[in-house]
Design goal:
The protein is of the alpha+beta class. The chain has one domain. 11% of the residues lie in helices and 14% in strands. A hairpin with a 2-residue loop joins strand 1 and strand 2. The radius of gyration is 15 Å and the shape is globular.
């Protein structure tokens, strides 16, 4: 069986974008959210028990969706914390 290697920074976002029909929309690098759909920001997070490298045990799956302080293009952090995305897709 052939191994398919996908760009990990794009693969899950790409599947979500395909599902929502927004793959033709240019992605903004380092945007606050992974996808934008009908005015809503979507944060896509993924995890896997098994990795492509050697492991002594399966990975622990955790997701952190706590409020965070965002940052702007100049690299300065926002004063208040919050959630930029309207939706988090956890896979």
């Amino acid at each position: 069986m052939a191994r398919v290697r996908l760009d990990p920074a794009r693969s899950i976002d790409g599947l979500e974008g395909l599902t929502l029909g927004v793959v033709d929309t240019p992605r903004v690098e380092w945007d606050a959210v992974d996808l934008r759909y009908r005015g809503h920001g979507i944060e896509v997070k993924s995890a896997a028990y098994l990795q492509s490298w050697a492991q002594t045990k399966p990975s622990t799956i955790t997701f952190d969706v706590a409020r965070k302080r965002g940052w702007d293009r100049a690299g300065d952090y926002e004063r208040l914390s919050g959630r930029i995305a309207s939706v988090s897709a956890l896979m």
